[in-house]
Amino acid sequence: MPIAIPAVSSHQVNKMNVLPVDQVHGQVEETSKVLGAGGKELPAPYKSSGNEALDTLAFLHLLEQLKVQKRSGWIREGVKEAESISDHMCRMALMAMMIPQDPAKPLDIPRCVMMALVHDLAEAHVGDITPVEGVPPHVKHQLEEQAMDSFLNEMLGGAGNKDARERFRSLWDEYEARETPESKLVKDLDRVELALQAVEYERSQDIQSLSPFFIGSIPHLENPTIQKWAETLMEERRQLWASRGREKEEQDGLQGVTVGSKVKKPNGI
Length: 269
Fold this sequence. Notes:
It is built from 13 helices and two strands, in the order H-E-E-H-H-H-H-H-H-H-H-H-H-H-H. The protein is mainly α. The chain has one domain (10-206): Orthogonal Bundle (Hypothetical protein af1432), CATH 1.10.3210. Strands 1-2 form a two-stranded antiparallel sheet. Helix 6 (109-118) crosses helix 10 and helix 12 (224-243) runs antiparallel to helix 13 (247-253). Catalyzes the dephosphorylation of the nucleoside 5'-monophosphates deoxyadenosine monophosphate (dAMP), deoxycytidine monophosphate (dCMP), deoxyguanosine monophosphate (dGMP) and deoxythymidine monophosphate (dTMP). GO terms for molecular function: 5'-deoxynucleotidase activity; metal ion binding.
């Protein structure tokens, strides 16, 4: 059964200015009111038309939502021309291709690239639900799980989409479980890409309220290569705000967090 998220006020929705999730082409069934990102009412899940070609086309049209929906956190902070969900995933995929292999701990890099492109796929339906919206993690996961079920069983349920269906399901489930080295790497890429984008918006738009984005990302980075990227990035950020006479304020805003500072060491500390 669909899960209804407690509605946010119209004032909150307007402040977030989150784009609505448009109803995709195809047949849908009536359902109770369900809210997604920004408190927007979601369309009912897609139901198969019985025509594999039309169902496949519905999925291809649905993917446009990843291109046009903006990432909610940036909209909330007043970023102009904020990145889309697919912008975020595309850079992650390219970054995955840059990770060097460690012979002692080999990674399936092609799988990481695909996982980066799939990890936010459910947001094509539910939108980019952020922690500040107060949606419990298990509710967010169930909404996204329902979206994936609709994508894979109703849109891609035909025999001709068997390989695609299994591929999407395997990659998305692996990322959500966060148990494999590949899924942990992709989560690191998710975090560092967020930090990169935050610095870029600070630099280009002089936004002074993005410290929480760093607090929630850089302390959790585990991969050594990504940690080095982040350390260089944070030094670049320090120099940026020093040049604007706000180094102390911005450093204080980080609340003492540093790259990898919240990652548990092998001895459990």
